[in-house]
Amino acid sequence: MPLPETEVPGRLQAELMSRGLRMTRQRRIILSVVETAKQHLDASQILRKAHKLDPQIDRVTVYRTLNLLKRHGLVDELDLMHLQGEKHYYERRPQRDHIHMACLRCGKITEFESDLFDRLKGQIQRDCRFHIVVSRLEVGGYCGQCRSLPS
Amino acid sequence: MPLPETEVPGRLQAELMSRGLRMTRQRRIILSVVETAKQHLDASQILRKAHKLDPQIDRVTVYRTLNLLKRHGLVDELDLMHLQGEKHYYERRPQRDHIHMACLRCGKITEFESDLFDRLKGQIQRDCRFHIVVSRLEVGGYCGQCRSLPS
DNA sequence: TTACATGTTGCAAGTGAGTTGCAACTATCA
DNA sequence: TGATAGTTGCAACTCACTTGCAACATGTAA
Ligand SMILES: [Mn+2]
Ligand SMILES: [Mn+2]
Ligand SMILES: [Zn+2]
Ligand SMILES: [Zn+2]
User: Rounded to whole angstroms, how far apart are CA atoms A133 and A119?
Assistant: First the structure.
């Protein structure tokens, strides 16, 4: 991973700066970790990746930055069915919401976009007169491989 | 609340007994608390209600009983958007799944059943070859009252 | 450039939800 | 009624996350 200071600022960084928030060395690093993540990361994984760029960064700063991103609706917080412990996972909020499926046997996480999901959210907003800010659909069960397995 | 020992066993108790599980005094009490709950309760609220029937019951027994019920698919565990702290809430699994909406302003929790939700789960099972065991759709936002309020 | 005000950081300590080890107990069944 | 295996309560523990605070860094405006 290139040093974030020499990089073109990512979308998260640009978004926070446009909202008048201070951009510190630590924030730039944490934002770049979240931005370039290939899977869903928990707070301690984010800290470990951030430490490769600055071993001084404290886990408190990771938690505070994640709270900042949550408050600004820039990341989503996931349970992923709490398959291992009570920790939470984070991902940059995508253009279009998706569903998370967690296999209770092998632990694999699958994502799925669906028109029906978009329509369902529309129905909630209309029928319940409820303005949706954040939505989370998580499903636990058995994936294709595990479904057709003994025991 | 009447003493659970003198009651007709509730559905939770009958279900656990039919699966060959031992029915202790403590379990009967905790099951009756969950069964007769009017709202979503967290573990410490369940303990407080159980204490009215037996002040000796330990919170460990509440957690162990909730885990038992979860493993048997008899209760659902909810985040309710973690509006206050990291605790979880519990409710007896209903015949038909429903959606939970949490107002980020007043904290009100609303439930909603939807055909689209049922169809969406069907689509997931078919299109993703994923056998659903448990599903959780939680939405955060602003309820009808709060939506049309200043500040 | 520099000084300033205010926001941010790291450290240490704390909180709160949930779990574990284990000896004493008890539901179930022969 | 006694044997057996599952369950309980207690104490201690783990883990995720938060808070208080003094030192520090950022953005802004001289
Ligand atoms: Mn959670
Ligand atoms: Mn409910
Ligand atoms: Zn699987
Ligand atoms: Zn409201």
Answer: 15
Q: Burial level of A18, CB count in 10 A (0-12/13-18/19+)? A: exposed
* CA distance to A71, A111, B13, B22, B44, per residue, from A67 (Å): 6, 24, 41, 44, 26
Between B50 and A8, the more confident residue is B50
- Asked if A105 reaches chain B (Cβ–Cβ under 8 Å), the answer is no
Nearest CB neighbour to B143, from listed A130, A136, A139: A130
- Euclidean distance between CA atoms B110 and B104, whole angstroms: 12
- Judge whether residue A24 contacts strand D, using its CB and a 7 Å cut-off: yes
CATH fold for domain B1-94: Arc Repressor Mutant, subunit A (1.10.10)
For residue A142, the chain B residues in CB contact (below 8 A) are 130-131, 133
Q: Which nucleotide is nearest to A87 (CA to C1')?
A: D16
The helix or strand, by DSSP H or E, that contains position B130, with its residue range, turns out to be none
Long-range Cβ pairs for the range A59-63 (8 Å, 24+) = A61/A26, A61/A30, A62/A30
Q: Which residues contact A2 (CB under 8 A, 6 or more apart)?
A: none
| pLDDT per residue of chain B (151 residues) written in tens, 0 to 9 | 444 444 567 899 999 999 999 999 999 999 999 999 999 999 999 999 999 999 999 999 999 999 999 999 999 999 999 998 899 999 999 999 999 999 999 999 999 999 999 999 999 999 999 999 999 999 999 999 999 876 6
Q: Give the predicted TM-score (pTM) of the model.
A: 0.91
**A148 falls in which pLDDT band (50, 70, 90)?**
confident
Give the pair of three-digit tokens for residue A75. Answer: 């990341």
Task: Give the start-to-end residue ranges of the domains of chain B.
Answer: 1-94, 96-151
State the fold for domain B96-151. Answer: Dna Ligase; domain 1 (3.30.1490)
The answer to whether the beta carbons of residues A14 and A7 sit under 8 Å apart is no
